[in-house]
Every structure is written in structure tokens, then in C-alpha cells.
């Protein structure tokens, strides 16, 4: 074969591959932007991707590789964002890659094979294609000398990076995209636009209310539900145990969950119950760490804008008032029992900021996700008895459970009776399986809580046991197909409801009742139950609780809420700047 024909054939093959790469890049761009809601957002993302691809082409000196790598990155962002939206009702944010790109997140994903199987296959195909491009595609500008080639390569890469920065900047040509309100822009659609905007939006925004509003109401002394006198600090302070029940809510708030199996004593009052009912939380499907922050600090994480989603990293170090800190002032020893590794979502450090003295994580227990709640409850018993033998100081113990965490897809053959078959003929097979899994695990939670209560209340010391759900499970996104009861709908957003329960072994213990209680009030309620001086923050917090009937951000009296927020942020500086 003549040499010139062979050369033409090689050039033709390279041209064909280049054309296919351009078409593939265009197809990926169209596919990735199909979820964007406005033409302006599509243009925004397209310009950014072109700038990114240009920088990659200059950096690698390979056109096909640069196009395909940028297209693959774009599709990966879209896929991950849609998966996160499905399970957690929140799109992918840029700080997610910073805070959650670790082995702990991989361990969480590993429990969802329906997620990682598809991701692994796609990743392998992408690596094979990109690897082939590296081997096959000849670098550009090989005829140039080394110094001019490097100068061209670096200047082109820098120009692409500057273009990328300029296009994405809030004051750039797409400033109208950035002009949207922070929460309005973060919606179920536009996953790529949300990701880019999060580079600039996901910082903590501490409320700055008008300081003059603080004096419109008296926040120095909290009115109480029963007019009880001032706390008696001479009495023996009660031990306090709080259990955060992972992904747990009262299934009775589902319209179709009316069978006896949907009822549990963990949600029903008994003679030792002092407060219980629906709990308003501020996250759904996940992000337990935000519920931890809200509980400890008495401040809903949503007050701080989208950046509040990373509370253990950016809010915990700035907290000035927290339940463990108040208890420590009154001689309590604060102990955390955690079902994950201590470095998961910065847990150990965050708990230190909240005021804990000791932190026990899963590395001490040899437990796994599938371990029943009873297993970690027994570990708590060992820790509690050991601590009680060493000191007569009152104890505050915080326990997090894990078994009710998703996925709720165990086959019926693995479930105990009566949950080993579909219980809801009116629901589809997927919803039946999710609910039966949930109810089966709920019985395990109930068993663990009853054992914990028996141990705690039998010790001869005054004691308080509180437990609550941090958020509802997503049931792989299928929970949205389940109807809420009329009672739940009347309380507001039914997907933001879980439960709380508080019991005490003290005779004549105070009782509290609210149609719905916000999680931001639970710490103050525990202090009231324990009859412990609350300090300035939780005194004001309790006042708002009583005046708004257990509601917080949805308090019917907006002026009252504005005055409270002004007091805690302008006067108490509850979050340092």
C-alpha cells in the first residue's frame, strides 16, 4: 500500500474519531442540561463546560481526551446530583466533594447496591475510553520546540481557567443566574446550575436582625406551662439519656398505615411519660448531623442558609450555647455513644465543641449497620455502669442508633413474623417491602428502648429518658408516593415530621403538651424537665416555645419570632462571627 494512502487513512481515522468526540460531547451536554429549568441556565452550563474543555485540551494537548473528560465529568455531576436528590431531597453541592469525599461516604453508598452497581459500570467504561484516548491520541504541537510548546500549553490552560472563573463569577456575564434567592435557586431541578452556584452560596450566613426588635418582648424569664416555681438546685440532679433514633417516625402519620403492626409503645404515652408527640425537623432522608446541631444548639440549621447543611464543620466551632455546655455548668459529665467512626462528618470534633467530655465510636463496639439497636444499647449500658461506678456526678449520655437507616430492601425471608409478607394490599410491592422492613426494625428499636428505660429507671437515681427521630427515611425516594394522614397534613409539611418522647422516673414530674414541637425546642424542654437553670439562651428559647405553642420558624406570630431572633443573635451572639 502506498505511503501517502496509508497516511491519508490514518488522518481519516483521526478525523473520524474527532468528529465522534465532538458529537459525543454535544450529546453529553444536551443530556446533562436536560434537567436545567431555563434556557439561560443551559447557556450558562454550556459556556462553563466549553471553557473547562478548552482548559483540559491545552493542559493535556489532546482534543478528544479533553472533550470526553469534560463530558464525563459533566454527566457524573448530573448523575450524582440526581441520586442525592432522590434519596435526600437535596442536589449535589460543591462542599459535598470537600467534606464527604472519604471512606465513610463510600461505606454508606456500599449499602445501596442499586446506586453503586450502575456507577461502577459507568466509571469503568469511562476509564477505558479515556485510557484508550491517552494511548491512541497523539499530543498537539509536537513539531514545536519544548519551550514554546510549554508556553502555549500553560497560557492556553491559564486562559481557559480564567474564562471559567469569569463566567462562573457572581458579577460575570451570568449575574442574573446568581441573582436568584439562595433557597429558590436550590430546587429539585437545575442540578448543574445548583452545583456551580453552591461554590459561592454554601457559606454560613448568620442572621443579622434589627437589634431594636430584641426589646419588643421580654426574653429574660420564660413563662412555663404550669407556673412551677424556680428550680431547686439543692436536689439530686437527674441523669439524662437522649437517644437519637435514626430515620424514625411514627408510621401512624401515613394514611395507609392503620393496621395494628403500625402501632408501637415507643410512640405512646404511659404513666412515666412527661411529653410526647409529633416533632418538626429540618431535614429529610438524611443529614442527621444537622438534626444533631439543631437539637444541641436550639437553632434550626436552616437559619444559616444553605451553608447550615455542613453544621459540624462550619457552625459547631462557633456555638456559644448548647445543651451539653449548660449541663456541664451544673456538674454533668457528658458522654456520646456514636454508631459510626469518630471522623464521620467531623463528629468527634463537633461533639467536643458542643460540650462533650467523652466520645465512644463504633471502633470500640465492632458493630455494623445491620446490628440491631439492642446491640448498641447494650454498649451504652456498659458505659453507663462504668461511669456511674467512677463518679456520683450526674451524667448526660447521648446515643445515636443506626439500624433504621436505609436501605429498607431486605427480602421478606429475612424479616421476622408478621413482617415476612406484604401487609398492605392497597400499596404496590415496593412500598410494601419498604414499610415491612421499617416496621420490623421498629420493633427492635422498641425492645432496645424498653430495656434502656428499665435499666435507667431502676438505678435509684432520678433519671430522664428522651428519644426522637432525626428525619424520615426516603425509602429510596418512594416515600413520596405514600399518602400522609389528615392529622399530619394539618401540622404542615408532613415530610418534616418525626416524633419525640420524654419519660421520667420522678414522682410528680412536670408534664408538657404541644400539637407539634420543633426540634429546636427539645433541649430547652429537657432542661425544664430536669428542673435545671437554663441560662439566658435557653430561657429565651423556652419562652418562644411556650408563646408559639411549640412552633419555631412557623410561629404564627411573626413579630414575636423576629424579636426572639434579634435577641439571640444581636444580644446573645449565640453564633460567633
CATH architecture of the largest domain: 3-Layer(aba) Sandwich
Tally of contiguous helical segments: 20
CATH C-level category of the largest domain: Alpha Beta
> Largest beta sheet: what is the strand line-up?
4-3-5-1-6-7-2-8
Instruction: Report the count of strand segments.
Output: 8
What is the mean predicted local confidence, pLDDT? 87
User: How would the global form be characterised?
Assistant: globular
- Compressed to H and E, one letter per element, the order equals HHHHHHHHHHEEHHHEHEHEHEHEEHHH
Overall helicity: 40-55%
In CATH terms, the superfamily of the largest domain is: Alkaline Phosphatase, subunit A
Write a structural description.
- By secondary structure, this protein is α/β, with parallel strands linked by helices.
- It is 48% helix and 8% strand.
- The protein folds into 2 domains: 3-201, no CATH class; 239-406 and 439-571, Alkaline Phosphatase, subunit A (3-Layer(aba) Sandwich).
- It has 20 helices and 8 strands.
- Helix 14 (347-354) links the parallel strand 3 and strand 4 (358-360).
- Helix 2 packs antiparallel against helix 7 (146-168) and helix 15 packs parallel to helix 16.
- It starts with a helix and ends in a 6-residue tail after the last helix.
Amino acid at each position: 500500500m502506498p505511503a501517502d494512502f496509508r497516511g491519508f487513512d490514518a488522518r481519516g481515522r483521526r478525523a473520524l474519531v474527532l468528529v465522534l468526540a465532538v458529537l459525543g460531547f454535544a450529546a453529553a451536554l444536551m443530556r446533562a442540561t436536560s434537567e436545567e429549568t431555563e434556557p439561560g441556565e443551559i447557556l450558562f452550563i454550556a459556556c462553563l463546560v466549553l471553557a473547562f474543555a478548552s482548559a483540559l485540551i491545552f493542559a493535556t494537548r489532546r482534543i478528544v481526551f479533553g472533550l470526553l473528560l469534560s463530558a464525563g465529568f459533566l454527566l457524573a455531576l448530573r448523575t450524582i446530583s440526581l441520586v442525592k436528590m432522590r434519596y435526600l431531597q437535596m442536589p449535589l453541592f460543591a462542599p459535598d466533594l470537600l467534606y464527604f469525599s472519604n471512606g465513610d461516604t463510600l461505606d454508606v453508598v456500599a449499602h445501596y447496591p442499586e446506586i453503586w452497581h450502575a456507577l461502577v459500570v459507568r466509571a469503568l467504561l469511562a476509564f477505558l475510553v479515556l485510557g484508550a484516548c491517552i494511548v491512541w491520541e497523539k499530543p498537539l504541537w509536537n513539531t514545536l520546540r519544548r519551550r514554546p510548546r510549554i508556553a502555549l500549553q500553560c497560557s492556553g490552560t491559564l486562559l481557559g481557567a480564567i474564562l471559567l472563573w469569569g463566567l462562573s463569577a457572581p458579577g460575570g456575564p451570568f449575574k442574573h443566574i446568581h441573582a436568584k434567592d439562595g433557597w429558590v435557586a436550590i430546587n429539585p431541578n437545575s442540578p448543574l446550575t445548583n452545583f456551580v452556584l453552591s461554590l459561592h452560596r454554601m457559606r454560613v450566613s448568620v442572621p443579622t436582625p434589627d437589634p431594636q426588635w430584641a426589646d419588643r418582648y421580654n426574653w429574660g424569664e420564660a413563662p412555663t406551662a404550669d407556673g412551677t416555681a424556680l428550680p431547686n438546685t439543692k436536689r439530686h440532679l437527674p441523669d439524662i439519656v437522649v437517644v437519637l433514633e435514626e430515620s424514625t417516625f411514627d408510621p401512624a402519620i401515613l394514611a395507609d398505615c392503620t393496621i395494628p403492626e403500625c402501632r408501637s409503645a415507643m410512640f405512646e404515652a404511659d404513666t412515666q411519660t412527661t411529653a410526647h408527640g409529633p416533632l418538626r425537623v429540618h431535614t429529610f432522608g438524611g443529614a442527621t448531623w444537622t438534626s444533631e446541631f439543631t437539637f444541641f444548639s436550639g437553632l434550626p440549621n436552616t437559619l444559616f442558609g444553605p451553608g447550615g447543611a455542613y453544621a459540624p464543620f462550619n457552625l459547631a466551632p462557633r456555638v456559644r450555647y448548647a445543651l451539653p455546655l449548660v449541663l456541664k455548668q451544673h456538674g454533668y459529665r457528658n458522654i456520646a455513644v456514636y454508631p459510626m467512626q469518630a471522623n464521620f462528618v467531623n463528629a468527634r470534633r463537633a461533639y467536643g465543641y458542643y460540650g462533650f467530655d467523652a466520645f465512644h465510636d463504633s471502633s470500640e463496639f465492632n458493630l455494623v449497620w445491620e446490628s440491631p439497636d439492642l446491640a448498641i444499647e447494650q454498649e451504652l449500658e456498659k458505659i453507663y455502669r462504668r461511669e456511674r461506678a467512677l463518679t456520683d456526678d450526674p451524667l448526660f449520655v447521648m446515643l445515636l442508633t443506626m439500624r433504621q437507616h436505609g436501605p429498607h430492601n431486605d427480602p421478606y425471608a429475612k424479616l421476622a413474623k408478621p413482617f415476612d409478607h406484604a401487609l398492605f394490599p392497597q400499596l404496590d410491592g415496593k412500598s410494601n417491602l419498604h414499610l415491612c422492613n421499617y416496621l420490623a426494625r421498629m420493633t427492635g428499636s422498641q425492645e432496645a428502648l424498653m430495656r434502656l428505660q428499665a435499666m435507667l429507671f431502676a438505678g435509684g437515681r432520678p433519671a430522664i429518658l428522651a428519644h426522637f427521630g432525626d428525619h424520615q427515611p426516603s425509602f429510596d425516594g418512594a416515600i413520596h408516593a405514600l399518602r400522609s394522614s389528615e392529622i399530619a397534613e394539618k401540622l404542615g409539611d408532613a415530610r418534616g415530621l418525626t416524633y419525640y418522647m420524654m419519660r421520667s422516673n420522678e414522682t410528680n414530674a412536670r408534664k408538657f403538651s404541644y400539637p407539634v414541637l420543633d426540634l429546636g425546642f427539645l433541649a430547652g424542654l429537657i432542661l425544664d424537665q430536669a428542673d435545671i437553670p437554663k441560662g439566658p439562651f435557653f430561657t429565651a428559647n423556652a419562652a418562644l416555645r411556650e408563646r408559639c405553642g411549640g412552633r419555631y420558624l412557623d410561629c404564627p406570630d411573626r413579630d414575636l419570632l423576629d424579636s426572639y431572633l434579634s435577641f439571640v443573635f444581636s444580644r446573645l451572639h449565640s453564633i460567633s462571627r
